[in-house]
Specification:
The chain has a six-stranded parallel β-sheet, sandwiched between helices. A three-stranded parallel β-sheet has the order 6-7-8. The protein is 47% helix and 15% strand. By secondary structure, it is an alpha/beta fold. It has one domain: TIM Barrel, CATH 3.20.20. It is globular and about 45 Å long.
Length: 222
């Protein structure tokens, strides 16, 4: 059974241009963070399951900041998949290709994008019907030049990528100039340090810079 990634959610990710990647350690930061991101133009996030507060924060943000498309990251098992879905996630992603998770997502009709780093990863994702994948870790792997090389054999299949890992506002430009880039994963927009210091205005400013850059690049595409 292939992955049935919601066409509506996929389009919202494309329209976002930038997906803010979040690590939340305090549930009380969820709502003000979400509002700060929305004020800066961010419409989609990936909240990672790297802290004990993650699931509760996901639920809180989904309920109180409904403008956000809520993605869950670091989904490593079927158990994680069920947990984020129950918490209110609209979609989920993982750092790699876990066949058990792909099969569970397909079984439940839940939008899921696996992480790819090699041609074999892309083939495995394609075998399970995935056409939207996460390219991770983007910059340490070799950046855009590596993505161009590794994705070349699959261009005719319409695979789209969300590069994430080591990205900056500067490096995002060249990625977004490629039509196969669905959106950029941005962890610099709301770092754990900025969140812990409750620097909501700074986060809004970084979000605004990133989203305006993405809009400008997308508008210039032929």
């Amino acid at each position: 059974m292939p992955i049935a990634f919601s066409a509506e959610i996929a389009q919202r990710i494309r329209a976002s241009g930038v997906v803010a990647v979040l690590i939340l350690r305090d549930v009380e930061h969820a709502v003000p963070l979400g509002r700060a991101l929305v004020e800066g133009g961010i419409t989609a996030v990936e909240l990672t399951l790297r802290t004990p507060a993650a699931l509760q924060a996901l639920t809180r943000m989904k309920k109180e900041v409904p403008q956000l498309l809520m993605g869950a990251g670091t989904v490593l098992s079927p158990r994680d998949l069920h947990a984020v879905r129950e918490a209110g996630a609209d979609f989920a992603v993982s750092p790699g290709v876990n066949v058990r998770v792909l099969e569970e997502a397909a079984k439940g009709g839940f939008s899921f994008a696996p992480g790819i780093a090699t041609p074999s990863d892309i083939e495995s994702a394609l075998e399970h019907g995935c056409r939207l994948v996460k390219f991770f870790p983007a910059e340490p792997l070799g950046g855009l030049s590596y993505l161009k090389a590794v994705s070349a054999p699959f261009e005719h299949l319409g695979v789209e990528y969300i590069p994430l890992g080591g990205m900056t506002e500067q490096s995002m430009v060249s990625y977004l100039e490629r039509r196969s880039t669905a959106a950029i994963g941005g962890s610099w927009i709301a770092t754990p340090e900025l969140i812990a210091a409750e620097q909501w205005e700074k986060i809004t400013a970084l979000a605004r810079q990133a989203t305006e850059t993405a809009k400008r690049i997308r508008a210039a595409l032929p």
